[in-house]
Amino acid sequence: MSTLKAVRGTRDLLPPETELWNHIEATARRVFARYNFGEIRTPIFEDTSLFARGVGEETDIVSKEMYTWEDRARAQSEKSQSLTLRPENTAGVVRAYIEHKLGETGLLQKLFYIGPQFRRERPQKGRYRQFWQIGAEVIGPPSAGSESPLRDAEVIEMLATLLDELGIVGWKLEINSVGSSADRARYVAALREALAPVKDRMCEDNQRRAETNPLRVLDSKDAGDQEIIDGLPKIAEYLDAESTENFRQVLAALNACAVPYTVNPRLVRGLDYYTRTTFEFTHGGLGAQNALLGGGRYDGLSEVLGGPKAPGIGFAMGEDRLVLTLQAQAAEAKAALADAFVAPLGEGLNAEALKLARELRGAGLRVELGDGGFRLKKSFEMGNKLARKIVLLGEDELSSGMLTVKDFATGEQVKIARTNLTEALR
């Protein structure tokens, strides 16, 4: 009998890795609370039509990647129903907003979620068929200010704060506007016209997208198609005056908060519900697929799903990718640490400490040198920041030739003969 394993594209999360997952989620909850967001938990499966109408039937998600099945009727009086594991959560949150009449409060609804999503795509680094997302939505009636460009800037500023508090270094923000639904329709028509004479020279996926969803062509990472894509019309050329002013106000608010960004005219995002502001945070440590999170405004989604007018903006971040980024940063930081911190226990031992450091450096080790004027506690604190291990050099160690070495990672402290020190530190 063959051994059972996790299904391809899924995996088990085990200690101690789950500690990092809990840290990320706890930090997100803490930051969201400061911005007065409340948690929402929607079902992990929904009526298939929710995603067909909300995300768009021609998107890759709906056309190729959803896990869908027919829920058979259990009685003659019942009808069978097509159900789908949620491939994203914005449509489900807006469905809940409509179903529970949250708009009747007259207030903005600021909702966050943490949970699994499901897409049947090719598994690769940081991308799984069951993946975890942290996301949030700000939605409400126009009278509550839901259309304001200030909402867009506030959400983006909150994300910059979250990434900083998670300790993610070197993130980059790319931002753009896809304009109103009318702007977007004009732009899609222009893209189709521009793609018609060149699409046959593009990869198979982009040939299909050129017909079904031209905006997705702009997202393509296919190296052979980049020259063609760079020559396509830019969305900024199709924005009306109102959309242009809206985007200017978003950028002005980000400038006021000193949130750095780059306007990327190719950032249009392929889901049908996006309007006006779209954005993406990226990180170089993730390779070609470098997106940490993305989001944007979806002013017409509620109406598409049969609800009242309720402009909104939201985002989703892949928790798997956050974990990979933090793990990569930790590995880089560990690699940058010195092999040893030599700590003389008294100013009279400074010269001997320098002599020892010279010996170790001569053997190819990276060594930091303390000072005999430091208190022992300070030597340990500095050593922990700068090196993997600390070597204590006191009168006893000098006379006996047995040096005290502590490994900061394990907490183990041992006596090592000076003649064996170099090999032990390796």
From TrEMBL:
L-histidine binds at E88, N89, T90, R119, Q133, E137, R269, Y273, Y274. It holds the Pfam family tRNA-synt_His. It comes from Paracidobacterium acidisoli. InterPro entries: aa-tRNA-synth_II, aa-tRNA-synth_II/BPL/LPL, Anticodon-bd, Anticodon-bd_dom_sf, His-tRNA-ligase, HisRS-like_core, HisRS/HisZ, HisRS_anticodon. Transmembrane segments: none annotated. Its main location: cytoplasm. Keywords: Aminoacyl-tRNA synthetase, ATP-binding, Cytoplasm, Ligase, Nucleotide-binding, Protein biosynthesis. It catalyses: tRNA(His) + L-histidine + ATP = L-histidyl-tRNA(His) + AMP + diphosphate + H(+). It is found in: Cytoplasm. This is Histidine--tRNA ligase. Homodimer. It is an enzyme of class 6 (ligase). One of its GO terms (cellular component) is cytoplasm. CDD domains: HisRS-like_core, HisRS_anticodon. GO terms for biological process: histidyl-tRNA aminoacylation. NCBIfam families: hisS. Residues 1-344 form the Aminoacyl-transfer RNA synthetases class-II family profile domain. Its EC number is 6.1.1.21. HAMAP family: His_tRNA_synth (MF_00127). The gene is hisS. Belongs to the class-II aminoacyl-tRNA synthetase family.
